[in-house]
Specification:
- Helix content is 50%, strand content 12%.
- The chain is of the alpha/beta class.
- It folds into three domains: 178 residues, Rossmann fold (3-Layer(aba) Sandwich), CATH 3.40.50; 83 residues, Helicase, Ruva Protein, domain 3; 112 residues, Winged helix-like DNA-binding domain superfamily/Winged helix DNA-binding domain (Arc Repressor Mutant, subunit A).
- The chain has a five-stranded parallel β-sheet with strand order 2-3-4-1-5, with helices on both faces. It has a three-stranded antiparallel β-sheet with strand order 6-8-7.
- A hairpin with a 5-residue loop joins strand 7 and strand 8.
- The relative contact order is 0.10.
- It binds a DNA duplex through helix 4, helix 15, strand 7 and strand 8.
Length: 416
DNA sequence: TGTCCACTGGAAGGGAGGGCTT
DNA sequence: AAGCCCTCCCTTCCAGTGGACA
């Protein structure tokens, strides 16, 4: 070994605090046990057992906030169902999981579903191109020929409905009623309790034959979940009871989100590991909490479309110049100037208004509609985060780099 | 009390970009 | 090659509106 040492050497000397399988601390890990979800699992199994008997199970709607174990339970029961199928099933049973966060149009849902039943690559339904009714007919024929019970899970179905309306749900119900041999059940998973208001009453009543509500976990339940995962993923004695309690308490405060609790714990361990510490301390948990929050925000900013970034930059610049709140019209003026500077054709004010609302939903800015009486009615926009951080991330964009030195003067009207 | 501002946010539709069909 | 279809991003048009002011 050379005197200066290899660049990896000091890191190699650090001892890993994880055991071999750290996947247990990642969100898509499906554990052997799901603590405090026994009754939900049982209820779901009770409904789905019908499929093993060769009949169509009721359609189900599952509600619950993020991180309440909806997806885990549904996947868990699905896995068990597939095992049981080998032993008990009297006819074909298939369990298909679709996440509507990515598969978010009627076309793509049908396409995903259909391709499950199409073996040959050259017969698969392309991801775009076919008329919708042709996709529908193809899917119907394929599933009907296959002859069995299909259970389709639509995770985050509220997103799908918000985006594309309830057409797709109607089509799935129609699919079921038009088939001669096969049957199809839908399990919808939603974060939103009131999303069924958007549904056509007929769709609503047929989709919600059974309802399951997942309550948030409390701090004690989160502790149990974390303990389970720690046993699998982390070396003995590295994570103390206090650390687990802290993680659980923080997550419980944020609506009992188990996913967050697990992530928080994982990052805490990583923080300790990177420091070369032998055990995780509470301070690592708080470091991890900050890191997660910051990562989340900067990722959101980085992946913004260019025009949204320009708007955000406009808000940041004016914040820097001492004007912390702006109206849509003012933002639009600054936005237009900035766009011209970097040689980009500005969008219309109508479109900007939508982009502002989008960023409001992301929590990057705060926008409120306010009336100034005689002086009109408009959104009042403020930056939701520290300017320095936001600006730094924005200026990483290759189109915005040149605006590094741009300043707004702090006059009543904003000039360059 | 009515007026009127500066928008908001819905609706409709254009057109580019993906792809298939004939 | 021409003619479709679906989705996404955007524009155009416009009725609607909360509340200060005359």
């Amino acid at each position: 070994m050379r005197e200066t040492g290899n660049i990896f050497e000091k890191h190699m000397r650090k001892v890993s605090l994880f055991k071999g399988n750290r996947e247990a601390l990642y969100p898509d890990y499906l554990p052997e046990n799901l603590p405090h979800r026994e009754s939900e699992i049982d209820k779901l199994a009770e409904i789905l057992v019908t499929a093993l008997k060769g009949e169509k199970p009721s359609n189900i709607l599952i509600y619950g906030k993020t991180g309440t174990g909806k997806t885990a339970v549904v996947r868990y029961v699905g896995r068990e169902l597939m095992h049981a199928r080998e032993v008990y099933a009297r006819r074909n049973v298939e369990y298909i999981y679709i996440n509507c966060e990515t598969v978010d149009t009627p076309y793509s849902v049908l396409q995903n579903l259909g391709n499950y039943f199409i073996e040959e690559w050259d017969e698969k339904i392309p991801f775009t191109g076919w008329p919708l009714d042709k996709v529908f007919t193809t899917v119907k024929e394929k599933i009907d020929d296959w002859n069995g019970i299909v259970i389709v899970v639509l995770d985050e179905v509220d997103k799908l409905v918000a985006k594309s309306g309830d057409d797709i749900l109607y089509q799935l119900l129609l699919l079921d009623s038009e088939m001669k041999n096969s049957r199809l059940s839908v399990i919808g998973i939603s974060n939103e309790l009131k999303f069924t208001d958007l549904l056509d009453p007929r769709v609503k009543s047929r989709l919600t034959q059974e309802k399951l509500i997942f309550p948030p976990y409390n701090a004690y339940q989160l502790e149990d979940i974390l303990e389970e995962r720690v046993k699998i993923a982390v070396k003995d004695g590295v994570v103390s009871q206090e650390v687990i309690s802290t993680c659980a308490a923080i997550a419980a405060r944020e609506h009992g989100d188990a996913r967050r609790a697990i992530e928080l714990l994982r990052i805490s361990v990583e923080m300790a590991e990177r420091e070369g510490a032998e055990r995780v301390e509470e301070r690592h948990v708080y470091l991890a909490k900050n890191k997660i929050e910051m990562d989340c925000v900067s990722e959101a900013i980085r992946t913004l479309p260019l025009h949204s970034k320009i708007i955000l930059l406009a808000v940041s610049l004016s914040d820097e110049a001492g004007r912390s709140s702006l109206t849509t019209g003012e933002i639009y003026q600054i936005y237009k100037n900035l766009s011209r500077r970097i040689g980009i054709q500005p969008l219309t004010q109508r479109r900007i208004s939508d982009l502002i609302s989008e960023m409001d939903m992301l929590g990057l800015i705060n926008a409120k509609v306010k009336s100034f009486g005689r002086y009109g009615r408009t959104k009042v926009v403020e930056l939701g985060l520290p300017v320095i951080e936001v600006k730094k991330i924005l200026l990483e964009d290759e189109f915005l780099m040149d605006l590094n030195n741009v300043k707004l003067s702090s006059q009543k009207k904003l000039f360059f």
